[in-house]
Design brief:
Keywords: DNA condensation, DNA-binding. This protein has three helices and five strands.
């Protein structure tokens, strides 16, 4: 599912206009992004948790030349699925 399809489905389920659904989805994405930029964690009960992890600087290899290169330290967004989401994706077999 792509973003446009998500917005269309959101509009259909909430009986919102496409424009209002687009604004709502974009606002949620903006809020999560802003909070992660600040280093905060965003938890949505039952769905999951968005957080930021730090990656230390390290050495790597240029695959084309084999030369050793320095890879700078960076931050990376992370998502950990919540129990309800995991259970929905992996239903127990009877």
């Amino acid at each position: 599912m792509k973003k446009g399809e998500l917005i269309a489905e959101f509009a259909k389920r909430t009986e919102m206009s496409g424009a209002a659904a687009n604004t709502a989805v974009n606002t949620i994405i903006e809020i999560i992004t802003e909070r992660l930029k600040k280093g905060d964690t965003v938890g949505i009960t039952g769905f999951g948790t968005f957080s930021v992890t730090k990656r230390a600087a390290r050495k790597g290899r240029n695959p084309a030349t084999g030369d050793v290169i320095k890879i700078a330290a960076s931050k990376s967004p992370r998502f950990a699925a919540g129990a309800t989401l995991k259970a929905a994706v992996n239903p127990k077999k009877k």
